[in-house]
Amino acid sequence: MEEIRLKKRRRRIIGFSILGAVVLLIVALIIGCSLSKDDKDVKEGEYKQVEKRTIVNSVSGTGTVSAINSEDITSQRFGTRVNAVYVKEGDIISSGQVICQFDTKDLENQLSEIRKSISQAKDNKVEQDANYDRRISESINNRNSNINETEARLNQARLEYFEALGELDKANQNYNDYMADPSHHAYDMDAIQLEMLIESRKSNVDVKKNNIQALEDNLNNLYNSDNSNAYDAKNSFDDSASNNIQNLEQRARDVERAIGECTVRSTIGGTVTTLNVKAGESFNGGTVATVEGVNDLLVEAEVSEYDIADIAVGMKAMMKTDATRDKELSGVVTYVAPKASNSGSKGGLGALSGLIGMDASSMSQSASGSGSTSATYLIRIAFDEQNPRLRLGMNAKVSIITESVENAISVPFESVVEESNGDKYVEIATNYNEASTSDGKIPFEKKKVKVNTGIRGSYYVQVSGDINVGDYVYVPAAEGADSIDEIMNMMGSSAGV
Questions:
Q1: Which of 29, 96, 151, 431 is the most exposed place for a label (fewest CB within 10 A)?
Q2: Contacts of 287 (CB under 8 A, 6+ apart)
Q3: CA 260 → CA 73, 80, 239, 246, 322, distances in Å?
Q4: Are 494 and 356 in contact (CB under 8 A)?
Q5: What b/e sequence results for 196-210 when a residue is b if at least 16 CB atoms lie within 10 Å of its CB, and e otherwise?
Q6: Distance CA 270, CA 71 (A)
Q7: pLDDT tens across 34-49, in order?
Q8: Which of 336, 345, 450 is nearest to 402 (CA)?
């Protein structure tokens, strides 16, 4: 808020200064018009020597010294008691230094209970795995025993089968022997009994054969059985138990991390500029402290939408602060915001730019428009060299060089006359040395010289053509003032070069 009030105050001062300048110009204009044309004090104009200069276009204003590295140290602990605070605002701290310590009693209790649950879950898994292994082992033993038993029964059944086949063959042989006697007939009682015995022996063979088939099927089933159900049951339990243990272990890690986060450390070295914790009070999450780097400083400023298009990353800048006295600090623009940071005027850079050359009405409009609501854009300027006298929050006067030409042949831009066809010329005194030393006895002889103009500063403009360094060009008298120098003195430092 104090910064905003200061900026508003500066804008009012600028506005009053401009209005004062306007009043002076108007008064001078009235006085000039009231003088008689033949008044001997009225000057026709002045002659200025053509020189080489460095001409620059710049945007000027004020900014604030800020930190390149600035970090909000945050914590998600909500409703947690602050046990201790180890820093205070203004302290210079290093990266990793402890800022505060939150209470960890509840978290440690949670961690203890989770660890107990993990231990119990692991013990239960071991016990259940042993039970499953025992059951699987018993099942395997039973299977092997059944296989052995079935194989023995199958061998016995095969013996019985072959015996039954032998008895059947014997019965058939007895029947054949009986019927070989011509006196015997198929309807004899003995023949009938022998046939009945054969049928009985056949039936016995079928029974023995079926018994063998049943035992072989049973044996195949035993061979093919792999206790997959028992293994599936064990694997299902292991998966469930392992997932439960992993979830508990993850919870433990989360709580351990939360306990670690209760010791809040700075992630950068710098100055503690804000501190939002107090020992004995509860913390409800958010920013614990703001730490701003003290070794790497820059200047941040808001630029009006009128000037922002002229500024680009990489442009040189000159800065001054009260702390560094008259020493000019050089720097370079490192950031230009692509989007407006606000829609209300903050004064911004370039508040005084372009005043020279305006007429009275435009100057009045500039003064009355000091409270405009144009958008502003954030820019950052890095110092070429850090200065130990700089501190965070200091105000800095800034001048960003948007365009410059060294060793430019230049003249006051008021001396350049533009004709209706667009051609430009200056008037050069061909006899300057004689006329200037004759106390008015020898009039100045002027010659028009066509020129082309280049970069224009606040007062001088670059020219080229049939004009040389050392020539004297005619500068028309400004209305309401005795000379160009007086106008520049009246306008102050904003006139520039």
A1: 96
A2: 72, 73, 74, 274, 276
A3: 15, 14, 31, 21, 44
A4: yes
A5: ebbeebeebbeebee
A6: 9
A7: 443 333 333 468 899 9
A8: 336
- How many Cβ atoms from other residues are within 10 Å of residue 310's Cβ? 17
Whether 215 and 153 have beta carbons less than 8 Å apart is answered as yes
- CA 275, CA 99: separation in Å to the nearest integer? 9
Nearest to 298 by CA among 402, 399, 387: 387
Spell out the SS3 assignment of 61-107: EEEEEEECCEEEEEEEEEEEEEEEECCCCCCEECCCCEEEEECCHHH
- Pick from 495, 496, 470, 474: which is nearest to 52 by CA? 470
Whole-angstrom Cα distance, residue 133 to residue 260? 42
- At 349 the pLDDT is 55
Helix (H, G, I), strand (E, B) or coil at 303: strand
CB 287 within 8 A of CB 72: yes
Identify which of 270, 153, 152 has the alpha carbon closest to the alpha carbon of residue 208: 153
Strands (E), 321-383: 329-336, 376-383
Q: Are 45 and 477 in contact (CB under 8 A)?
A: yes
Could you tell me where the DSSP H helices lie in 329-442?
A: 360-368, 432-436
Q: Report the Cα–Cα distance between both ends of the chain, in Å, rounded.
A: 35
pLDDT digits (tens, 9 = 90+) for 148-203: 999 999 999 999 999 999 999 999 999 999 999 998 888 889 889 989 999 999 99
pLDDT of residue 491: 37
Q: Which residue has the higher pLDDT, 17 or 214?
A: 214
